[in-house]
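Below is a filled-in request sheet from our internal design queue. Each sheet records the structural input a requester submitted and the sequence that came back. We keep these sheets so that new team members can see what a complete request looks like end to end.

REQUESTER: design group, bay 2
PRIORITY: normal
MODE: inverse folding
CHAIN LENGTH: 197
BACKBONE (tokenized):
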């Protein structure tokens, strides 16, 4: 009896009993038949991978993607140092990074005329540093939540922006207004905390 050979089908394959095996499937066939369909281009020889080997391979791919280049690390560190300096100037603890502090930072950066995509990249770097410290909340959650909070904050300003700036709102004026509002909200929260204590 000839040994079986493992193949991966490149096209549909019809069995002797009339059954059909779909393209992409892995099957074992007698060596002679396997070689015949390989020569016809219906299949390719394939060595099956054990589940443990597959998991090991997946783990190494994930690790490679998780490892950051030196340039990327430098960008993240620069983003965080900028945030840390801003926090120091405003009397805020930089770590752990909180959604409120990051939202206020984002509004300040936009009010300073920094492009939205640059600010978004800065926030990703800041939250990635938070993730590396393994502090809560997680980097991905924090990155997502701060932009949801920004969207909600901007929506809450719509009427006030229209009343205070007019219909011809220029980006810089709108963000300056937003900066004033968020600083006022921050101050009110701080005062409420002090009086509750």
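RETURNED SEQUENCE:
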């Amino acid at each position: 009896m000839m040994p079986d050979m493992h193949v991966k089908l490149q096209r549909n394959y019809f069995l002797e009993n009339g059954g059909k095996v779909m393209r992409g499937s892995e099957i074992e066939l007698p060596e002679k038949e396997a070689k015949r369909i390989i020569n016809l281009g219906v299949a390719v020889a394939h060595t099956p991978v054990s589940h443990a080997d597959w998991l090991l391979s997946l783990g190494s791919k994930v690790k490679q993607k998780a490892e950051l280049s030196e340039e990327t690390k430098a960008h993240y560190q620069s983003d965080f140092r900028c945030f840390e300096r801003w926090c120091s100037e405003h009397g805020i603890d930089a770590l752990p990074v909180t959604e409120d502090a990051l939202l206020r930072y984002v509004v300040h950066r936009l009010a300073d005329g920094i492009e939205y995509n640059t600010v978004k990249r800065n926030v990703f770097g800041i939250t990635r540093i938070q993730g590396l410290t393994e502090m809560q909340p997680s980097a991905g959650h924090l990155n997502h939540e701060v932009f949801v909070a920004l969207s909600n904050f901007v929506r809450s300003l719509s009427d006030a922006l229209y009343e205070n700036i007019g219909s011809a709102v220029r980006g810089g004026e709108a963000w300056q207004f937003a900066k004033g509002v968020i600083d006022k909200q921050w101050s009110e929260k701080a005062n409420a905390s002090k009086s509750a204590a």
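SHEET NOTES:
- Residues 139-165 form the longest helix (27 residues).
- The chain is about 65% helix and 10% strand.
FILED BY: M.R.
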